[in-house]
Amino acid sequence: MILLIENVLDAEDLGFVDETLAKARFRDGVASAGPTAQLRKHNLEMDRAASPGAEALETLLVRALAAKREFGDRVLPCRFARPIVSRYEPGMAYGRHVDNPLMGGPLMGGAGGMLRTDVSVTIFLSEPASYDGGELTIGEEGHERAIKLARGHAVAYTTGTPHRVAPVTRGARTAGILWAQSAVADPGRRAILADLQRAHHLLAAKSPAAPETALLLQGYYNLLRLWAEP
């Protein structure tokens, strides 16, 4: 799955992002990488302890993403890891890698414990014309797909998919990086549920009171109940 989501952040949101990033401090991103990824990772990440407004920015990223219906329909998120705000300056890149399947430590909402990373998300925070390079390149059925979106747009993809961030050669690329755990672990089942939900949305728009509209929603709910994990 590769899902492009437009306008996750609106103009007001982006104004707050700019204010927060203007006061933010960044540190070497290697600190959050595993032993293998450290060899491929060369970027900066916001030091939340030294950056005023960091927690509010993290909350904004998660809430804005969770509010997008297409994300909810495709991902069925139940928990989020705390976002990371990354920054790539000229010469920085992140080589081909796969994200960790489990993440520990504090989660959004004050919860703790382990999170299974089902879906990875990048929310672009820099205008694409302000930097060269820096494409998020995702492996897709034997090919690589390079993605560089407008500010405030996002891409979500199945965690476990090999990906990389191309070297930045001019300017700076800043993005919010998130991970979500789905209520349905199997990506194939999530895809089936997403198709059914989309069909229900279409039926509900045309014939909201029709019995087939209610029947399709009933089937969707029963499948979700069958496949969802506590």
Please give a structural write-up.
The structure is a single chain. By secondary structure, the chain is of the alpha+beta class. The protein folds into 2 domains: 2-182, Jelly Rolls; 187-227. Helix content is 30%, strand content 30%. The chain contains 5 helices and 17 strands. The protein has helices at residues 11-23, 54-66, 69-75, 187-206, 211-227, and strands at 2-5, 26-28, 41-42, 44-46, 77-80, 84-88, 93-97, 102-103, 115-116, 119-124, 132-133, 136-140, 143-147, 154-158, 163-165, 168-170, 173-182. The strands form 4 sheets. Strands 1, 2, 4, 5, 6, 10, 14 and 17 form an 8-stranded antiparallel sheet that branches. α4 runs antiparallel to α5. The chain is globular and about 60 Å long. The two termini are 23 Å apart.
Structural topology:
Layout lengths: L1 E4 L5 H13 L2 E3 L12 E2 L1 E3 L7 H13 L2 H7 L1 E4 L3 E5 L4 E5 L4 E2 L11 E2 L2 E6 L7 E2 L2 E5 L2 E5 L6 E5 L4 E3 L2 E3 L2 E10 L4 H20 L4 H17 L3
Helix pairs in contact: 4-5
Radius of gyration equals 18 Å
- What is the H level of CATH, i.e. the homologous superfamily of the largest domain? q2cbj1_9rhob like domain
Secondary structure tally, helices: 5
The biggest beta sheet, please?
A: 8 strands, antiparallel
- Element string (H = helix, E = strand): EHEEEHHEEEEEEEEEEEEEHH
Summarize this entry quickly:
With 230 residues, this protein is α+β, with helices and mostly antiparallel strands.
Search tags:
eight-stranded antiparallel β-sheet; 230 residues; 2 domains; alpha+beta; 5 helices; Jelly Rolls; globular; five-stranded antiparallel β-sheet
